Amino acid sequence: MTSLDTERMELVRATRRAEQLLVPAAFVTALGNNVQLIAGALLMIRSDRTMLAVGLLFVAVAAPQAVLSPIFGRLADRYDRRRLWIGCDLASAVLALALPVWLASGGAKGPGIYAANFALAVVAALFFPVSNALIKERVRPSQVRRFNANYEMATQAGMLLSATVGGLLVQRLGAVPLLFFNAGTFAVSAALVAGVGRRSAVTGAETSVAAGATPAIIPTTASTTASTTAPTAALTAGQPASSRVPLGRLIVLYAQGSVVVTVFNALLPKLVLGEWERGAALFGIVDAIGSLGFLAATAFYKAAGRRFNDLPIAVFGFLACNVALVLQPLFGPVGLGLGVALGAFTYGTARIASRSLVMTSVDEAHAGRAFGLANGAGLAATVVAMLGIAELVDRSDSRWGFAALAGLSAVAAVAAGVLLRGPLSHSRDGVRHSDDREQHHGAIGAGIRSRMGNHERRRRAAGGVLPVPAPAPDSCGVPDAGVAG
């Protein structure tokens, strides 16, 4: 076995380990982030039964990320992403512990909740681009779509289950034990990411060309930063290269998903606790049902992704989710549960597809910046949508809030679909033509190598009985490099 084979085997083992550990790390991180937020929302809705009080809490979380994520995305492209992820988790654990200590010492509830969630949001502004850039760095290009399905399912399931955990624990034990549980989730995530190990090798340019080219293995040291590594030029499942697809249009499609899930998480406690006056347990059960929808979405995307491109999957998925949003508050708790399951299924499918579009359309060296911009744009839009919908709901009821959210999402999905259809279509054509040329050149090269091999075998056979003739001079007096055969 050659050293290249050994390096290739080590790379495969390292990437598989990363793929196995990053998914549960994403789950517990999402669970922890949203447990803190849900606990705060439940406490605020009990003390001030307005949508605006809850909406301001979500704005306090979204605003710092909207401003800082594009800036922190550049840091994710300059420094060790694994260490940054671990640092974010440890900082979040410390901040999460600060709130129950503050409440137990008799601190004011409202200011403490806003301050703790604001501080966690600052850390999350770095975590989002860092985590996505680490995925781009460690996951094999050929596995990006499959991994994204699992990763997005884990993230969204963690967000939804946070409502279940939050609702049940707040109702039975109160908010303080829940907040201690939240700090523990960040410690678990840090341990999982530490198990990924240091970066020892990267793929330079793994292509999907039928000529069967072997991916380059480029050994690196632990201090190698993402900005000094070769960008990944791979296209998976016919997805476009970043130079051919406008990133801003992809961000419109991807980022509007952040608006949907964040505003929905603010509307749900207002509907269940504020208007229906049901317990926190129903609030948690409804979101737990939604988790089943995300599990179904993961399986569906893996099947649909083999037959359809990501753009139509994302657009039609978001539009179907908009229909579910309108129906959710109209038919009581049973209708809400069914609507949330349908909405989670369609939203999850669309979110996975839009994430795959962004992930496969940026190179590794700029992945942090791209996802930082996507997170910032999505949360900036969330702030505007949250304040507007909160005002609408407080003047009417939650049904209008769900309808308004569905309308905003539908406009963004249709606009992005129309704007991206041309660039993505041209990019796929370019990829197809490039693949055809590579196959053609590969066939020519194979034919030349075959003829050269036959020629060499004839020369060696003749050399067994005849001396090899000296090269004859050509017309310019220079010995010919050819071999008589």
UniProtKB/TrEMBL annotation:
Keywords: Cell membrane, Membrane, Transmembrane, Transmembrane helix. It is a multi-pass membrane protein. It comes from the Bacteria. The keyword Cell division does not apply. It is found in: Cell membrane. Residues 427-485 are annotated as: Disordered. The chain crosses the membrane at residues 21-45, 51-72, 84-105, 111-130, 151-170, 176-196, 250-268, 280-301, 370-390, 402-420. It holds the Pfam family MFS_1. Signal peptide: none annotated. Residues 427-441 have a biased composition (Basic and acidic residues). PANTHER family: INTEGRAL MEMBRANE EFFLUX PROTEIN-RELATED, STAPHYLOFERRIN A TRANSPORTER. This is MFS transporter. It comes from Catenulispora yoronensis.
